[in-house]
Amino acid sequence: MIHHKQYFKSDHTSQSHQFIVEGPVDPEILKRYQFDDGLDSFRLPEEQFEALIEIAELPEGRIIIAREDDLIVGYITFVHPDPYERWSDGNLPYILELGAVEVTPKFRQFGLASSMLKLSFQDNQMEEYIVITTEYYWHWDLKSSNLDVYEYKNMMIRFMQQVGFEVYQTNDPEITSHPANTLMARVGANIDDTKRIQFDKIRFKDRFFF
């Protein structure tokens, strides 16, 4: 499968701040930017920045960013699922994982996450993929949001529904370990029944299908 990538860019203005939302961003372009110190939800900012560059270098990897001048203040990642997770079973080239959405705390009320998400799916190539996202409550910033796990879950569902994600059932142990954990997926318009069935088999591993 050839992973075509078409670049998109949009302006985002909020409260006198001028942002650029763009992507998928080439790794060499990413290296020219700075990375906000508040982007530390998953690892140290400098380590996370290196991880983004590595993803951008992958054939299927997509990095969407929001930046103020040359400072990256938010990002979304798309990459094949981790080889140690069930979602990589069969190494299906048409399954991508939306792995992370992060905006630096000082700009989280500016709508940047939604702008990045919507721009991500402007590329028609995304209709060739089943894009999954696994929502685990232990990754959520419950303290800053002042939401409980179920309110946060509902917020994430509404957020993903903006671009056509739906909740899918699964017997994956990590998802079923807590009722707030959620599997969501967006099935591209060009995904045929054979590919859908393969996805179903991964969702319900070790269950027989007739």
Describe this structure in words.
- It holds the Pfam family Acetyltransf_1.
- One of its GO terms (molecular function) is acetoin dehydrogenase (NAD+) activity.
- The protein is of the alpha+beta class.
- It has one domain: Aminopeptidase, CATH 3.40.630.
- It is built from seven helices and nine strands, in the order ββαβαβββαβααβαβα.
- Strands 1, 2, 3, 4, 5, 6, 7, 8 and 9 form a nine-stranded mixed β-sheet that branches.
- Strand 1 and strand 2 form a beta hairpin.
- The longest helix is centred in the last third of the chain and has 13 residues.
- It is globular.
- It starts with 7 loop residues before the first strand and ends in a 7-residue tail after the last helix.
Task: Summarize the model shown.
Residues 28-189 form the N-acetyltransferase domain. It contains seven helices and nine strands. It has 210 residues and is an alpha+beta fold.
Low confidence ranges: none
β-strand percent reads 25-35%
Question: Could you spell the SSE succession in H and E letters?
Answer: EEHEHEEEHEHHEHEH
CATH homologous superfamily heading = Gcn5-related N-acetyltransferase (GNAT)
User: What is the radius of gyration?
Assistant: 17 Å
Helicity, in percent?
25-40%
